[in-house]
Amino acid sequence: MTVAILVADAFEQVALTGLRKALDAVGAKTVLVAPHPGQVRAWNLANWGDMFDVDRPLGQARAEQFDAQLLPGGVGNTDLLRVNGDEVKFVRASFDAGKPVASICHGPWSLIEAGVVKGRRMTAWPSLKTDLQNARATWENKEAVTDNNLVTSRMPADIPAFNRHMIDLFAAGKPGTGSAPSGTARR
After folding, report:
1. Of 3, 11, 95, 104, which shows the fewest CB atoms inside 10 Å?
2. pTM, 2 dp
3. 3-state class of 56 per DSSP?
4. What stretches in the chain show pLDDT beneath 70?
């Protein structure tokens, strides 16, 4: 399974490293996709974090090249991404194809902008509750919520539960991605 991880500068470092490590452990190939080539810089709780190499610039990435999509959080990261028309189209194309998508923390801002949350059960960083409700999603204050091809989570403290839900969703496959036995990831 190949997973696109969409980030811009100021993504929450643990929301990338903790999730990517879990995907790597089950044999998924992760591809860091960002608005520009080169590197992106993480935010590490209260300070700037590490630099990470961009595997593919967003302008050269297409949703059909990936089996699944991951949207890590971070206020600055998601605020930059949700105003990027290419990122919004990329997110929307994954949903239109029925591909599994995982989003944590502030990541659902991109989902709201792509117009894919109406009628869905979701969670996110607590300050997004009203945003999700205004977009007609149903807010659930849980570690992780899975609704069809979407799994969402609140915050870095929820990463262990989110990883389990994400891996189960990605392994199950959804329309347009094929399928794999539960608990395993396709390559």
Report:
1. 95
2. 0.90
3. strand
4. 174-187
